[in-house]
Amino acid sequence: MDRTYERALETIEVRKRTRRPIAASPSKAALPPRLLAGSGTPQLRGTPSLAGIAEWLQQIGHSAEDINALNIIHVAGTKGKGSTCAFAESFLRARGRRIGYPAKTGLYTSPHLIYPEERIRLDGITISRERFARYFFEIFDRLPQLHSPYDSDLPVVQRGPRNLQLYALLAFHVFIRENVDVVVLETHSGGEYDATNVVEKPLVTAITTLGMDHVATLGPSMKNIAWHKGGIFKSGAAALSAVQADDADGTVNRVLRERAEAKSEVVRFVAEDERLPAGTRQLEPSVQRKNASLALAAAEAWLEARCSGKELSDVDIHAGVEQWSWPGRFQVVHDASVKGCTWYLDAAHNDMSVSIAAQWFAAETAAMTDIPASSLKSGEEGARILIFSHINELRDSVALLGSLAIALRDCKAEIEHVIFTKYATVNTCEETTDGRSTSETEMLHATWRKCQPGTRIWDELSIQAAVDRARDNVKSSTSRTGQILVTGSQHLVGPVLEILQA
Q1: What Gene Ontology terms for biological process does this UniProt record contain (predicted)?
Q2: DSSP code of residue 277
């Protein structure tokens, strides 16, 4: 068999679930004993992602003790998981560079922005494609289930891992083989039933900001979501949470406390840490200070468990912030191809995150847009531009755009052009599965015009065409400058960033 990086990706890709099951939760007979012990919510659909992971790890050659020996910081949440994980790894890496421990860090995040190998990092650096392929085929050789097409009619263990489960297995395998000292592990969308929750004895667990998202699998209320996310809490592991913007009756905080108490732990809600440096772009907008504060608390809780109370020094904290980078989140890129064109990229994809993206964009561009839209003549539009796309069976793209439009309006960020696109990277005559219906396109137009009726609306068939359209609009503007917000999905932001970096 061809054992290249490309072949590895092909094997992983074909195990992607084409559509989420619409049936109710599976019968208890389909669940492993660990899942039967919980009291989950009825909104879970299909077989939980955790099912089969422990068995497949054993087939690969890894025991529960091997996973526990990775000294894991496990992070769940709705908003800011990736940033928080990256901050925690960066703080510990800075400390390791100064003191010598941890000498080697591992970081697993999901999804990737541009390339799949971004999900797995060693000492802050994405693993090479050679390593990716080598370690993947070590798993392939030990999991005969991967040698045949995925068959959902087979029992869980016999059918083998799906796409995300396979990425999690690969990450565990890489970190064990590379003998890392610490792993910062991001959940996928859930917590209790998440594939990453195979970890029985993490050293630290942390919950980032919670909000309504993935309701089809986690449930229709914040109570359900908090229950699932709190499922990563474990006995003997520090339980941390960002300060939650709770509902009126305190349900979210109460559920998180109950979930921690069930494991004989007390959850600590982490406020903003004053030791973080001021005036640093890495900590803008303010939500990043919240994420970094939780990460700092997680890193120090890890040191408490591993090094008997050692804290991060101010040098470690400042170095950890300074070296931190998380592409696609609150990222500013100056266009090398079009002078005066500045791109603002944020892979926000739920109501909470697009509102924050709007506030960030408005604040960043407030002093840069000097020409009022009312003074522009026909054909002289320019200044602020939005590129938006969100295509997901589990979320309402029209409602998401509505939240973004309202947030931009409330921030007084007037958009001269809005460009809707699909996920195709270039125009093609072939049918794609990432398109949208004509009626949905019309609803997007109508939703936008309710908030900003003066905007010129464009529909492009590909991301490349959307980028070209935005650049042309900047070139034809009176000021010859433009600020372009790209948001709505990681599947949009990643390809745009790749185009800008070409």
Answers
A1: one-carbon metabolic process
A2: P
